[in-house]
């Protein structure tokens, strides 16, 4: 199965760290985030990688080359202008395996998710697309009052709300990849919403393993701690 890694973003929220370095190439535990991501896939048995680039692409290409040093194949997809996480699919070569789902992942996500199990889940459910999700908890810092008219019906002190949030990891069938036109600007959530609107089979795969989206400075600092025990 091919693996498509999104590595073209500007990393604006991590400035000034990203002024001279693309976010996926920031060092975590002495090596780039993207290096750890790719090695996680290699450990799970994947060998065919595609990387989308836009911001400072030469740093990524010079570091990884064609992947031969890691014993894998790496092909680069360059976005001349930002196309969004979904739009990059339209730049993939048309000779991708017609019968193999593609795993997509943001290049700034660290995770210990079982990628083989993810693929099995996608196939077993005959899904057109699968989105990995993470449970997110938020505690309301006040007592919440429920009422009927001007009468209080119940009170809950500092309740915890639980939601599933997008984890930035997807499995998509080749048919969906082919629907994205070259240079079409679209994000993956919008592409997924379109599939749902068309009554396509879209499933969610909850991640219970380690997962961290390195979006802001505190996430970057947390990753420096986590990488010592998780990877």
Please bin the fraction of helical residues: 25-40%
N to C succession of SSEs: EEEHEHEHEEHEEEEHHEEH
* Rounded Rg: 20 Å
- Quaternary state reads single chain
Low-confidence stretches: none
| Structural class by secondary-structure content | alpha/beta
Largest sheet: 7 strands, mixed
In which order are the strands of the major sheet placed? 5-4-1-6-11-8-12
Strand content of the residues, in percent? Answer: 25-35%
Ends apart, CA distance between termini: 23 Å
The gross shape turns out to be globular
Separate helix tally = 7
Mean pLDDT across the residues is 92
- Extended strand count: 13
Task: Walk me through the structure.
The chain starts with a strand and ends with a helix. It has a 7-stranded mixed sheet. The protein has a two-stranded antiparallel sheet with strand order 2-3. The chain has 7 helices and 13 strands. The chain is of the alpha/beta class and 231 residues long. Helices cover 27% and strands 32% of the residues. 33% of the residues are buried. The model has no long low-confidence stretch (mean pLDDT 92). It has helices at residues 33-43, 57-64, 84-87, 115-124, 174-179, 188-197, 217-230; strands spanning 3-6, 27-28, 31-32, 48-53, 73-78, 102-106, 109-111, 129-139, 143-148, 151-157, 160-172, 202-206, 211-213.
Short description, anyone?
The protein is an alpha/beta fold and 231 residues long. Helix content is 27%, strand content 32%.
